[in-house]
């Protein structure tokens, strides 16, 4: 899966980029029809670190946003929520 990482208002280091790619690439196994790309946006806000994952699946667009104290925690929370969302989308697809 191709991962498009956008770091807004800061430069993402190699370590953070590798972490994001490792975590987000695991999402491909949860839904067979996942498009070949996932858009990941990271933003440093006053409230904390914001992560947003956007995946296009056939007939829908799944978006998860989370704010946490670190980018790593925000990405982990997003990936966990996206796993559940992808599983539900897969079940819905195969019901029809």
Structure in words:
Strands 1-2-3-4 form a 4-stranded mixed sheet, covered by helices on one side. Helix content is 39%, strand content 34%. The mean pLDDT is 88. With 96 residues, the chain is of the alpha+beta class. The protein is elongated, with a radius of gyration of 13 Å. Helix 1 links the parallel strand 1 and strand 2. It is built from 2 helices and 4 strands, in the order E-H-E-E-E-H. The two termini are 26 Å apart.
What do the pLDDT scores average to?
A: 88
> Which percent range describes the beta-strand content?
25-35%
Largest pleated sheet: 4 strands, mixed
Query: So how many helices?
Result: 2
Order of helices and strands: EHEEEH
Topology diagram in text:
Elements: E1 2-8, H1 14-25, E2 37-44, E3 49-57, E4 60-68, H2 71-95
Parallel strand pairs: 1-2
Antiparallel strand pairs: 2-3, 3-4
